[in-house]
Design brief:
The complex is a heterotrimer. By secondary structure, chain A is mostly helical. Chain A has one domain (about 1-65). Helices cover about 75% and strands about 0% of the residues of chain A. In chain A, helix 1 packs antiparallel against helix 2. The longest helix of chain A is centred in the middle third of the chain and has 22 residues, at about 25-45. Chain A is elongated and about 55 Å long. In chain B, a hairpin with a 6-residue loop joins strand 1 (about 30-40) and strand 2 (about 45-55). The N and C termini of chain B lie far apart (about 110 Å). In chain C, about 70% of the residues lie in helices and about 0% in strands. Chain C has 16 helices and no strands. Chain C is globular and about 65 Å long. The two termini of chain C are about 15 Å apart. Classes of the chains: A mainly alpha, B alpha/beta, C mainly alpha. Chains in contact: A-B, A-C, B-C. The interface of A and C includes residues 19, 27, 34, 51 and 69 of A.
């Protein structure tokens, strides 16, 4: 947990100043957006909270809803 | 500020790499297992597992410097309902997990084999540390005793047994069955698994182990045994005879000529005739040299060689047929004929033969051709005898 | 329509492209194991059939890229489909890149967890591997392309060596009987092998834009496909010949067959080599996938460079790899079913349809007219 916090702080420190200095607004915006998503996900993972996997949704969609499934091999 | 951050990040990264050390096992912590024996325990559901652990400090010392009574190994035994449970239980006695990658032999006792080996085989195939090239053996009596018989020329009994099986080629009276070979036969529905037999022979003070013959299984239960000649009959057909001794009657029937097999090759071709008969064409080519004769006949003459070769072929055919007859009594396809037919006649196999293969196996006819050649007679041209005339 | 290039000015040439494609296809060398469940001793046939099926599909990728030289697929989608639909289709591509990287990352994580260091937590491998790929992508496409020569050379040598060392344990009668497997299983197997090693190279649609000359690209790409496929064939043949009917019970057939090398009691436990080679190959493949992901996300957001978002994307990928499957068994079962169906429209049809529409709308020509 602390690990996660440390790493993310470090990454922010290394990456943010150049972006702000160069005034790359779009890049800064994108960086912060993904950064926050990654941070939240990592925190959830570190705290053992279950994160739903997209594969579960896809599996349901494809196998149950659309019925696309190969027969079990012998 | 940025530089400090980079430095801290690098240090953290290096600390992360230490995660790999979680799996490190120091040499002094290892309990090196060289052989495992499985017996049935008093409780009908349990098995007694004996693991032969190397006592590294005593290795190399026995006989010369160290205490003559100390052994360079010790057999740790525990009971459990399954193999993995028993192996973990051994930590009650040893204090460390067993280190299995050097295990060379796995020995099952006959009672366990007769009850079925499936239960006791899964662990050895699934465990990452086990070797697939370890040998399987079936012990007459208790496997634990077999592992205890201190060999004369080798320090560790398990290694001794491994060497015994590995050198099967000298007599071709047994066969080296690895875990992989055994599972391959087990998976195949037609072929019967086999495993070499081992027993403890007490001669006076010494207990020695002897490996010869094969145990035959139906699925995973042991049902039959093959003696030395029958085993060699099997090996002729599956092309695994390396060397051995053939005792052949001489033309004048006054004694025997003893041959040492130099090379042997066996080829099998299955054939299904139009009226549904199965004929196995077996083609054996063998080269041998005359190593001993017990008569005063002069055998080193071409026409006598002809007759000897014929007699030799007879002996080979007899061995093969005896193997077939023994195995057909129980319908166990030890030769793998079923699989051969499957590979050649795919459709017919699935439609007609697969179901009743056990019964159909008993009706196979043979067409055996043995081509023997005597290559040399070693140092003697004529036997040592008073009768020098001819 | 501003085409802002996201990659560094560096270009790669067609020879490097050939090695890149070969290395990429080889990255799935342990994947053949997934197909063995279905086609058992006929897996080699499935590999050959997959190569045949994949060639026209891959050709459609290259043809599309050749038609729009210097552009990557996100840009192409915008041009062909218009700004809104183009972005939607590009999202499908991005989704695919993201999931595929996580599958590959998980592949290598599971390999280490099962075989090499069972006691370490898997997230450690996932993170370490992903960060290494991120480092490679950070350096850019050119270094990766330069490294591809060595990677292919090493992997070819080791694979052939292992094959030779196993020759005396091989039993070629294990390939008989031919045609024992039902047709549907065969089709299943071909679907898996085509989708995973071969068609995942749709990621190259982000890389074709960096070619210095796109004219001869098709030939090199197809040859890369075939040589990568040759290694897959090598693996399929070797595993069937060595293991015979025990092929289907192992978690990883390549590991087991390499374990059987036992020459002179010295050359044993060679399965380590399989682990090493697989690591190198998957690293290469995953780096290319991560590159595709980073550049496509950057392109769709209109960023000047993909570098800033690289690390956060990698972190998201790590969490994704950690949560996407419950266990290796789940991984195997899903890959054989839903895992290949979700990408089927994308891999097989989308580039071809894009190409078709581009031809109908005579698109690059109007672009050229716009310029002059």
């Amino acid at each position: 947990m602390i690990y996660v916090l440390t790493i993310y702080t470090l990454v922010a420190i290394i990456n943010l100043p150049p972006l702000i200095k160069n005034g790359q607004k779009r890049e800064l915006f994108a960086f912060i957006a993904f950064f926050i998503v990654a941070f939240v996900l990592s925190l959830l993972y570190a705290m053992d909270i279950e994160i739903p996997s997209p594969m579960e949704g896809l599996k349901y969609l494809i196998e149950d809803f659309m019925g696309l499934k190969y027969p079990e091999p012998k | 500020m940025k530089n400090t951050a980079v430095k801290i990040a690098t240090i953290l990264l290096m600390i992360t790499l230490l995660f790999g050390c979680l799996d490190g096992r120091e040499l002094s912590e290892l309990e090196i297992v060289v052989g495992i024996g499985i017996d049935s325990a008093d409780d009908p559901d349990s098995i007694k597992l004996t693991a032969q652990v190397v006592n590294v400090s005593q290795l190399g010392l026995s006989g010369s410097g160290g205490d003559p009574d100390s052994k360079p190994y010790w057999n740790a035994a525990t009971t459990g309902t399954t193999i993995f449970e028993a192996i973990r239980q051994i930590t009650h006695k040893t204090g460390n997990r067993l280190f299995v990658p050097h295990c060379e032999v796995v020995i099952y006792s006959k009672d366990v084999a007769k009850q079925g080996l499936y239960k006791h085989l899964d662990f050895f195939l699934r465990a990452i540390e086990m070797r697939l090239t370890s040998f399987i053996l079936i012990a007459e009596g208790k496997a634990g005793e077999v592992l205890d018989a201190k060999p004369q020329t080798e320090e560790l009994p398990a290694v001794n047994i491994y060497n015994l099986v590995k050198s099967y080629g000298f007599t071709s009276h047994l066969y080296d069955v690895t875990l992989k070979e055994f599972s391959s036969r087990l998976i195949s529905e037609a072929t019967a698994p086999v495993a070499p037999l081992i027993k403890v022979v007490q001669e006076g003070e010494n207990k020695d182990v002897q490996v010869m013959g094969l145990a035959v299984f139906k699925e995973d239960k042991m049902i039959d045994e093959l003696n030395m000649d029958e085993t060699r009959g099997l090996l002729w057909v599956i092309n695994e005879v390396k060397s051995g001794v053939l005792i052949v009657p001489t033309p004048e029937e006054s004694g025997v000529a003893v041959f040492e097999i130099e090379t042997a090759k066996g080829k099998v071709k299955p054939e299904i005739t139009d009226d549904g008969k199965i004929i196995m064409h077996i083609d054996i080519k063998l080269q041998a040299n005359l190593s001993e004769q017990t008569t005063a006949e002069k055998l080193a003459r071409p026409e006598i060689f002809e007759k000897l070769q014929d007699n030799m072929s007879e002996v080979v055919v007899q061995e093969i047929m005896s193997a077939y007859e023994k195995s057909s009594k129980t319908g166990s396809d030890i030769f793998g004929f079923g699989d051969m037919i499957h590979k050649k006649y795919n459709k017919k196999w699935h439609e007609q033969l697969e179901e009743d293969w056990e019964e159909i196996y008993k009706t196979i006819e043979f067409d055996i051709k043995v081509d023997s050649k005597i290559t040399k007679t070693n140092l003697l041209k004529n036997p040592v005898t008073q009768k020098l005339g001819g | 329509m501003n085409e802002r290039m996201n990659v560094e000015r560096g270009k790669i040439n067609v020879t490097q492209l050939f090695f890149c494609v070969t290395g990429f296809v080889e990255g799935s060398v342990l994947l053949v194991n997934f197909a063995v469940d279905m086609t058992k001793s006929q897996t080699w046939m499935a590999v050959l059939a997959s190569i045949a099926v994949a060639i026209p599909v891959i050709y459609s990728y290259v043809a599309l890229a050749t038609r729009f030289p210097g552009l990557n697929v996100i840009q192409i989608n915008d041009i062909v489909y218009g700004p809104i639909l183009g972005k939607l289709i590009s999202l499908y591509y991005i989704f695919f890149f993201a999931l595929t990287f996580s599958f590959n990352n998980r592949d290598i994580g599971e390999l280490y967890k099962i075989f090499i260091m069972p006691d370490a937590p898997m997230i450690f491998f996932l993170a370490a591997f992903a960060v290494t790929c991120a480092y490679a992508v950070h350096k850019g496409l050119e270094p990766l392309a330069r490294v591809s020569h060595i990677i292919v050379a090493i992997s070819f040598t080791v694979m052939l060596l292992i094959f030779l060392l196993l020759i005396d344990i091989m039993d070629f009668s294990n390939f008989l009987p031919l045609f024992d497997v039902p047709l549907i299983s065969f089709i299943h197997s071909v679907h898996v092998i085509t989708a995973i090693p071969f068609c995942e190279s749709i990621a190259f649609l982000m890389i074709f834009g960096s070619l210095d000359k796109t004219e001869k690209a098709a030939k090199y790409v197809i040859w890369g496909l075939i040589s990568g496929g040759f290694i897959l064939l090598n693996v399929a043949v070797r595993n069937t010949a060595v293991l015979g009917n025990t092929e289907t019970i192992w978690t990883s057939t390549s590991f087991e067959s390499t374990r059987l090398i036992d020459i002179g009691t010295v050359l044993t436990r060679m399965d380590l080599w399989v682990g090493v080679i697989q690591t190198i190959l998957i690293f290469f493949k995953a780096s290319l996938l991560l590159y595709a992901l980073a550049t496509s996300v950057a392109q769709i957001l209109g960023l000047k460079s993909y570098l800033p978002i690289l690390l956060p994307l990698t972190a998201i990928e790590v969490i994704l790899s950690a949560t996407v499957y419950q266990s290796p068994v789940d991984h195997a079962m899903t890959t054989q079913n839903a895992g290949i169906f979700y990408s089927t429209p994308l891999l097989y049809f989308t580039p071809a349809i894009t190409l078709l529409i581009a031809v109908i709308r005579k698109l690059p020509k109007s672009k050229r007219r716009k310029r002059s």
